[in-house]
Amino acid sequence: MTKHALEGEFLELLNRCQGTILRLCILYTDRQPDSINDLYQEIVCALWESFPQFRNLSKPNTWAYRVALNIANMHCRAQHRRPQFVQLTNYMSDTIPDYEENSMIDRLYRLIDLLNDEDKMLTFLYIDRVPMREIALILNTTEYAVRHKVNRLKHKLRKLNEEYEQ
Fold it and tell me: How far is CA 24 from the centre of its chain?
């Protein structure tokens, strides 16, 4: 494959996954524009470096999720910080589809911030409507285990929400 064709395929993949990668960056940072941009660039670099080795054994989006989630987790471990809620900038809110100043979305992000890394990852994938089969591939587990974890996670978030309201 020529370098030009490889770049074209990569840019097409990146274009399809851009919103998802951005939401992942928001979820795994302190939501400051510089932090989000840094993580986004790290993810894009990692995707580009590993793109020639992508063998189409899974869907391109599944592969991109796996790479992005691994980089986000490594980034969080390296930063040793707990995300705190900060309002999104106009630039950020313009790039995220259907984002409005909505207290429900704000509360959801606050609740997700309280979860451990694995639960954050699962929540992110579930909210992004990734099929259970693909989530199982990304998390290297079975569909049954994913469904069970999602169900427990829903209960956990409901409980956290009730505690948050009190």
Answer: 3
How far apart CA 1 and CA 10 sit, in angstroms, is 12
The boundaries of the domain holding residue 96 are 3-165
Q: Tell me, what DSSP letter sits at residue 88?
A: P
Residue 90: both structure tokens together = 């106009």
Which CATH number belongs to the domain containing residue 119 in this structure?
A: 1.10.1740.10
Handedness of CA 130, 146, 82, 50 (dihedral sign): negative
State yes or no: pLDDT of 28 exceeds 50: yes
CB 72 within 8 A of CB 25: yes
pLDDT, one tens digit per residue, over 95-110 is 555 544 567 777 888 8
Q: How many CB atoms neighbour CB 154 within 10 A?
A: 12
| Residue that the structure tokens 């399809």 belong to | 16
